[in-house]
Write a structure and sequence with these properties.
single chain; alpha/beta; Rossmann fold; nine-stranded mixed β-sheet; 17% strand
Length: 253
Amino acid sequence: MRGDHWEMLHGRYQDVMNDVTCDAWIGDTPYSSTTHSGHDAMTESDNAKMRRAITYPAWTPDDVRECVSFWSPRTRGWFVTITDDVLAPHWRAALADAGRYAFSPLAYVVHGSRFRMAGDGPAQWSLWIVVARPKREPYSKWGALPGAYVQPAGELSGHRAGDHKREIGGKDDWIMRRLVADYSRPDDVVCDPCAGWGTTGAAALREGRSFIGSESRESAFAVSCKRLSETSFQPSLFNPSKAKQAKITLDLP
């Protein structure tokens, strides 16, 4: 695939993506049971109309290790995932064990995103982004990248593909476009095997990348396909200098 091509596969990545390779793996994978249970408790509160119960299972450290084991040999470049504080150390360890250089998790801050209904402590406005690269050039000379991602005010009302963002997995366009722009190059193939409602795919297409993803839930798969079919390239404002660089092509080890 080149440029603005995309493909969505219906099913678990382990079943439908065995022949897939990519230049960059960028996703928002399921979080731990701790985050899921906290989110679902909110749906039973007075704020229930603002959220939906999560419709996919939480991940465990074993799921993280399985994902990294499956995808690291199939991913030429950067590996990037949004996760919670429980699973972030497991992602970093699994990626390091796979032979990649795994960086300390980066904070992703969304002001007012989550609060404690009981009023018994601090709100949680941060998730974590784990990134890892191959231990070779040109990735070791990629360039300086942000040390954290703070969602700008006013960006929370981005494309919502319906109202799916009431479910915890629905990320805003802003963060996924930033990650795509920072960790891939124009014409790269970006992969997200937990594609959900298609936010990563839409971000990739807008940034001039190709995209391949998978989703097991039929309703989410249908929404993501529709969303990707309606998405077109939009010149990036994030990394204009990198947009001029040629695509990096390397064979998988």
